[in-house]
Design goal:
87 residues, 2 domains, 4 helices
Length: 87
């Protein structure tokens, strides 16, 4: 696949990365970074919306309160994920 010269050049580049930026070399060696799932945020937002609509339709204050509580939790999860992605 690679000629001996190309292998030697790749090894030199790899050694340079290991000396210059060991953290980057470790990250590149371990492969792509797995992204966490967004399913919990989506499910919680859907539950908050459903509870809110049901609370408004039936006029039940506890359903509206539950919708607000789950909505606040979902917003917290989304903002925590965004802060983590920016870091």
């Amino acid at each position: 696949m690679f000629t001996p010269y190309e292998r030697r050049q790749l090894r030199l580049i790899e050694e340079w990365f290991e000396q210059d930026d060991p953290e980057l070399a470790r990250t590149l060696r371990s492969g792509p970074v797995k992204q966490p799932s967004t399913a919990p945020q989506v499910i919680l937002l859907a539950v908050a919306g459903a509870l809110g609509m049901l609370g408004v339709i039936t006029g039940a204050g506890m359903l509206i309160f539950a919708a607000l509580a789950s909505g606040v939790t979902a917003i917290y999860l989304v903002s925590a994920r965004r802060k983590k992605d920016d870091a």
